[in-house]
Amino acid sequence: MNYTSSSSKFNSFALETVLASSLGAEADAMQGDFLILPGNHGFKQTGLPRVLTRVSKKAAAPEPYLYIEGIPRQLIENDEDEVICPECGARMYKNGWLTTRLKDIPCGKIPTVLGVTGRRHHCPYCRCDIQTRLEFKAAEHLITQRAALYAEDLLRLGLTLKDVTEITGLGINVVKDIDKKRLAQLYTVNGDGKTLIKPERQATKLGVDEFLLHEGRKFATIIIDLDTGHVLWLSHGKKKQCVYDFIEHAGMEFMQQVKCVASDMNSDYVEAFQDQCPWIKVVYDHFHIVQSLNQKVISEVRKDEQRRLIKEGRKEEAKALKGTKYILMTKAETRTKHDNPPQNKRKRRKSNDKVICIFDRPAKPQKQKDIEALYKKLISENQRLFTCDLVKEKLDSAYKTSNTAKMRTQIDEIIAVCESTENKHFLWFARLLKNHLDGIINHAEFNVSTGKVEGTNAMIKNLRRRHFGLPDDDYFFLKVFDASRQKSHKNN
Description:
Elements: E1 2-3, E2 13-14, E3 16-19, E4 34-37, E5 43-45, E6 50-54, E7 63-72, H1 73-78, E8 83-84, E9 91-107, E10 110-122, E11 129-131, H2 145-156, H3 161-168, H4 172-187, E12 205-214, E13 218-225, E14 231-236, H5 240-250, H6 252-255, E15 260-263, H7 267-276, E16 281-284, H8 286-311, H9 315-320, H10 325-329, H11 332-339, H12 371-381, H13 383-398, H14 404-421, H15 424-435, H16 437-446, H17 451-466, H18 473-484, H19 486-491
Parallel strand pairs: 7-10, 12-15, 15-16
Antiparallel strand pairs: 1-2, 3-4, 5-7, 6-7, 8-9, 9-10, 10-11, 12-13, 13-14
């Protein structure tokens, strides 16, 4: 088995396996000789590998692993040299041997452990002890450097902590520490894991939103570059301070080039951007405006009309409104696509062709009713529903224009129509449009939305689901930063 790491300071690491004879059928015995050349720089193998077993609480049966004995190469070359105490500068004396077990990259599916025996030295004056330094040992963990690099490369490919643990045989906390250190090198200043790096490129359009971080309504704020989709900032909470911290982190030189920010109707975010950067124009998301119209106006008006018809004894007409909620919310293009689906261009199977199915196929659904005709009938029989259709189509037309003055005129017409009805639901929507008029009209100039932010939120949910939860928030935020840049890494 050969393994080469492009991120290593060494050109290659080779694990060459030579089998003089195969393993026997018995799990606890080895037939013949089994020789491995580990390829760890600075490690000298002193004996033939042995297959040992260890008992684990998680495993039902003892787990086999490959044990290789050896010593540091520098011990062979410098065993007779004098060792000076780093504390007092006195000469140290040999004080026996110490065997350290280091996990190495596995041999196939069998975990490999190196038993490295080194000298211990004792200072008779300051009573300190030191042992032979292992050049091939990874820092902070009892594993080899190439095992850490192997795990790092697997994590770079997008494998989860659990997957890398099963492949390498390392502990899940060790793999997590390796990954966190890797991400800190990429996204923190000097790899210290404390200060986040500045945005890599100048962004002109930003998106801001919140997402649920933990149960109990604990939220986090996310700010992304709408052009690239890269996450630029993550912080706990969803208040103004989150935006203030981002502006301070990015710097005014960066913020002066930002033209607009897409947001939902969270007033804290909007006020924070307008307070610190008044030149940035806020664009309220199109989806949230349409969602408010559907849920707070159309749906409520339909319910009111049902109750009114039942109260007047017109039960059949009230029954006709049942199940029409989503039909009343759809646009004209959607209804047309539903009633006239595209023709299937695939080659159809002949009637005499026999198809063998292991599982029963469900019966083909019957053709649904003509929703366009049903929709026209509903709005023709009800004045309030006709008004809903008028407002919905005008709003859709307003968001298709790229002229700011024209869009303002169309929004003013919608407000006038809503106010003329004197219905509480339409009046509520008119106030919503008035209070957010400038942010709605800015859509004509910039044509941006929080769609990429919502997609990033979905990616965050999927990331947490794949990893079965990541309780360490700092590590989780670094994983989100890395996941938003995966396409850039692959292209490079």
